[in-house]
Amino acid sequence: MLQYEQLFENAYNLFSTGNYRESISMLEEIKSLEEQLGNYTVEDYYILKGSAFLALNELDKSRSAFEQALMENNKSVEACLGLGKVLYSSDMKKEAKVMFEWAVKNDPDNEHAVETLKNINNILGFPEGHFIEDSELTEEEMNVNLNELFIEAYELMMNSSYDESLETVKELENLFYEEVNILKGNTYLAQDKYDKAKECFESALKINSRCVPAYNGLAELYASKNMLRDAKAMFEFALSINPEDQFAGMGLAEVNYDLGLPTLQSTYTFLTDGKLNKVLDEKLNKAYELSQEKKFEESLNLVIEVEAVIKNSKEFNYKELSSGLNNFMGFNYLGMEEYDKAKEAFEKSLQTNSTSSQACAGLGEIFYFQQLDKEAKIMFEWAVKNNPKNYFAILGLIKMNEILGYSPDHNSLYLGLPAEVEKEFSSLITSAYDLFETKNFNETLSKIDKAEKLLVENLDEIKIQKALTSLYNLRGFAYLSLNNIAKAKEAYEKALNINPSSSQACAGLGEVLFLSNKDEEAKRMFEYAVSHEPLNQFAISGLKKVNQGLGLPENDNTLLARPQKEKTEEIGNLIEEAYSLFETKNFNEAIKKLDAAEKVIEDNFNREENFESLTRLNNFKGFSFLNLEKMSEAKNCFERALNLDSKSSQACAGLAEIFLLEGKSQEAKTMFEWALKNNPNNVYAEKGLEKVNKNFI
Fold first, then answer.
1. CA within 20 to 30 Å of 64's CA: 13, 579, 581, 612, which one?
2. Dihedral, CA atoms, 179, 184, 189, 193, nearest 10 degrees?
3. Range picked from 219-223, 405-409, 417-421 for highest mean pLDDT
4. pLDDT per residue over 189-214, tens digit each?
């Protein structure tokens, strides 16, 4: 067994190369040993552990490790700095400053500590060498340990003890009104109490219009409601005030990613040098514009310039930025059809960030062009697994599944079957779906039986659950189509025994009850189906159908509280009014009604609760803007609809129309084809495809 020293050095080397989780695992092994400490101390152990958890953004574990280090040595500079960084990452900047001050007090000659304190002072608007003196505190403030109260409130919030957290916050409210509103806002945000959270963040901004944590809080709030453009604006406000704010930087990167923009459209995401940021950010924005205009070589040259500057700087986050830059270069090389260089760039990206979804998708595209279909499918599968929202990867995987004869959403990474068995299982499932589509229901059932047998023989009971639920649901719908109500009911009940939250099983059972003339029971099952999956069109249609039979409003749902029910009706009325205005070509007025409907949704529902309405609303707004020839606004609406529902046929058709108007015939053709794939009955998409195909004759 390795001695402590060797294990510690291995852990440190893993940490240095960015393998934080492996480093922690190595440290855990150390803790179980009883060898002499050698050249290292228990303090060193906890400092390294805290730093690794901090790098993984596991703040509670990081704080605990740094506190252990302070117990070993109460003058530990590294422990003070580590705790300061934890507090800073929790948007508790004044408390972070206190810890950075202690680091400097413990070792005034420590350049890193001095520089860190200088940075936090700049951020908070203090002189570079500023220390909080005891004389600056009022008698009332001296009687309260603010730092302890903040940490206590923060811990309660992180442990989901929200009421207790808010009680602790009340003790602070009269002392630090701005900070307290931030903490209250974050607590309400964690409870999905968006109105109260918004009120708190806005109160903080009234006190201090440059309050970065308030902008970050609003950004998180908007992101939770899927208002991604608004979230992006808030993160950008935060970064315009403080380019060094890592929370805003990472938040902006995530939002850009979800919007389909390059995450490094802002170098604020990674860099700490504000002056460097501004110059490089301008170059990256220009590179992105050039890439969109298909001027790939010019774009590539700018990205290479940015990489060279950052590489020669002292940026400690260079590795994280390097992955994104290499992806950007890779896609430019792809556009230039230089596949070897593109492959090299994506592989470099994966060396730095092994879970980069974009790098996997880029390699998938290269393998596709090289006609390595199986390899391409695997890379697209990893891309989707690493980021299920990566639209480019989703389309790539669907494309490869179509070529290889699999169902569109097939992903072998989610099953864990041996390769040869997985191939047979996939073939059976694909055949079952194809047979179902062509109304060969008895043959469908035969394929399902064989697939179930294969699963039972090759997977343990836990891994089999998800796949079995899907099989039972398909079996239920096959029996429904054969009008065998009893067998269908049995299949859906089996699915619900495995997964009580299966939306399809609830919807199927709802249909069984509806056909058995049990409308009240059917309504309840459809309501559960919609609550489990707001995008389930079969469940939505079923609920509308049964509500109509019961003489109720089509969106009536008894699982919603009365105020929510009223708001749902209000939304429906606004959208209907908008339709009337649209038909009379009053597009501006229609958009106003749709904006009003959207506001009701945002103020009263979580984004999970009204996916269908938001998708429908954004598509509707998109076509209204199209009629007003406002292409940019229309494109934003259709993209937002696709973020909500990646299979929205109308959103695909709307984007296709924009591409067609921009003279991008190939892109238009692809999107019209996707629109029809998602809904073969979409007449608008069908006519659009006929129109665009004429350009290829």
1. 13
2. -140
3. 219-223
4. 877 788 888 888 888 887 777 788 88
Angle at 386 between CA 384 and CA 388, to 5 degrees: 45
Q: Looking up tokens 């429906």, which residue turns up?
A: 572
- Identify the DSSP state of 560: S
Contact, 49 vs 8, CB < 8 A? no
> Residues 130-143: pLDDT tens digits?
776 433 444 344 33
Residue 401 near residue 380 (C-beta atoms within 8 A): no
Q: DSSP letters of 181-208?
A: HHHHHHHHHHTT-HHHHHHHHHHHHHH-
pLDDT digits (tens, 9 = 90+) for 498-521: 878 788 889 999 999 999 999 999
Taking CB atoms within 8 Å and a gap of at least 24, the contacts of 579-588 are: 579/620, 582/620, 582/623, 582/624, 585/627, 587/624, 587/625, 587/627, 587/628, 588/628
Give the CATH number of domain 587-696: 1.25.40.10
What is the CATH code of the structural domain delimited by 145-259? 1.25.40.10
Residue 241 token pair: 């005030």
Q: Tell me, what's the pLDDT at 506?
A: 92
Q: What angle do CA 661, 596, 207 make, to 5 degrees?
A: 110
Fold agreement (145-259, 587-696): yes
Nearest Cα neighbor of 260 from 367, 375, 368, 394 is 394
Query: Which CATH superfamily is 4-142 part of?
Result: Tetratricopeptide repeat domain (1.25.40.10)
